[in-house]
Design goal:
alpha+beta, eight-stranded mixed β-sheet, 3 helices, 10 strands, 17% helix
Amino acid sequence: MISIRTRIARSIVVALIAASTFATTGCMSQSTAPAAPPPPPPPQRDTPRPTQIVGTASLLPGAYGELGNCVANLYNSFEDWNRYRPFKSVRVTGSGPQVAFAFGNLVPGTYYVDVWKDTDNSARWSAGDFVGWYGNGSLGSPGLTPLQVREGETVNVGDLSMYLIVANAQVVQSHRVDR
């Protein structure tokens, strides 16, 4: 029979051997310890798309003129357009018979667009001015079409036809500008 002392001594020896083996090859060893999982990738953030209206304005075929320095205007209502109360105006880019414009950072909603070159700085549509709008109609009876713009949407109004106002045109009286 093995004495209690012998059993304790054997247990201590086994424990020491196991501890040294465990320290060099077991879970405590850095070479075999499982690596920590990599951190999760940063959350994907969608780049917000701009809410905007873009377009161009061009002279009618056969017309001659310079559209540089036109102003594109954005209105909240037809009444605001009729009273010339734009809530946002931008200078066009480019020159010659075709120019471009862009209204950025818009709140979703309904808008009306026109482009105007006030050649004599009279603050009124007058002979020699160029004017165009999104919609249909003619100088004597412009028909603006409302634009619906949703969040993150770019609305391209296409190419707006620019009309030259000539002397004695009825339109001169129809669009009064009170600034």
